[in-house]
Specification:
Blueprint: H1 2-24, H2 45-48, E1 58-60, E2 66-71, E3 76-80
Antiparallel strand pairs: 1-2, 2-3
């Protein structure tokens, strides 16, 4: 059972690393709508993003990382899209 969990975790980590490599290889600026949000998410971004993040409205910010519009009860702000292990999702 433990070996199965370890292999599953290792496989997920490896898949995530490959997706990050694919995203970091993208240098072209993706098309955006009139509000500056991406029209289409880059391939692999949705799979990398941790659960609980509303990635319907995403921007590629000046830091070359992907941020999403968070609409809370008190405030609306942009937050960085994070992976399940808390890493930023960025281009290089």
């Amino acid at each position: 059972m433990i070996d199965r969990i370890t292999n599953s975790t290792t496989s997920r980590w490896a898949a995530g690393a490959v997706l990050i490599a694919v995203l970091t290889g993208c240098v072209a600026t993706p098309p955006v709508d009139d509000s500056g949000y991406l029209i289409e998410l880059p391939e692999g971004l949705a799979e990398l993003a941790a659960e609980g993040q509303d990635i319907a409205r995403v921007r590629l910010m000046e830091d070359d990382c992907y941020w999403y519009l968070y609409e809370g009860v008190v405030e609306t702000t942009m937050l960085p899209i994070l992976t399940a292990d808390g890493r930023l999702i960025c281009n290089e």
